[in-house]
Amino acid sequence: MLHLSGLHLLLTYKCTFECDHCFVWGSPNQSGTLKINQIQSIIDAAKSLGTIEWIYFEGGEPTLFYPILLAGVRLAHGAGFQVGVVSNAYWAESLEDALLWLQPLAGMVNDLSISSDLYHYDEWLSRQADFALQAAKRLEIPVGTISIAPPAGEAREEAYENASTLMYRGRAAQNLVAHAPMHPWDSFTQCPYEDLRQPGRVHVDAFGNLHICQGISIGNLFQETLQDICQRFDAEEHPILGPLIENGPMGLVMEYNLPHRSTYADACHLCDHARRQLRERFPQILTPDQMYAVSP
């Protein structure tokens, strides 16, 4: 059985950027956006489950659909959840602009996370991010930044001590591996980033897919209840999660006798490569096309 304390809503796959490190292949050309009635349904499901504490709104870039985002935040806050929003702050062209965008969220958002690094902008902390941070603090919205470090083999002058590790999945598995040191494929015997048995939080996308890791769905909220999905969840018996839990991405390759290269950048890189080969066999699990850069 799955025990959840957080739901992260991928409000949209569409984004103002097309970052090389993006897990979900966010892009101006992406499709898939939650409707307000779907958000209401997800919040009702979270309330019925009884264990959810946090609802996050992410993307893509959720503020591209600002009226829907604002309505969703109001619904989640009104239902008694702690609310988080993740944004790249493209809208904060000045402090005054940032205040206008954030003021309606004041008093409802418990965590505003601003993405800013050299994948998004030409500066580690962009002027947009700086304006957003100033405005949030003025409005007493709890705020912080999310930054991703550059590839391990790429030299930069900036200090990255507060940046999160780059994971070579999603677009990074295609665009950034050339910069990375490689390691033997059979050294990746565990998933270093996700607790696949009990992750605590999962992502819900615009098609209802419940992602335990981006691109691995454990059910669909538009086809069955959240409670049913959580009750029947058995990670060890899952055809993708089971091998990953037992022997990491190497286990996935061995379980299905998949062709592979001799070296990969990290565990995510090998996992991404293996899952792509298995999509035709497990189309309801390794979904949607948006997570694999396939035009729907």
Helices and strands: which structural class?
alpha/beta
Shape verdict: globular
Radius of gyration: 19 Å
Per DSSP, what share of the residues sits in E-state strands of 2 or more residues? 5-15%
Number of strands: 10
Q: Unreliable stretches, pLDDT < 50, 5 or more residues?
A: none
Q: Total helix count?
A: 8
Question: Percent of residues in helical segments?
Answer: 25-40%
Mean pLDDT, all residues: 94
Sheet with the most strands: spatial strand order: 5-4-3-2-1-7-8-9
Instruction: Name the helix and strand elements from N-terminus to C-terminus, one letter apiece.
Output: EHEHEHEHEHEEEEHHEH
The multimeric state of the shown protein is single chain
Largest sheet: 8 strands, mixed
Distance between the ends: 32 Å
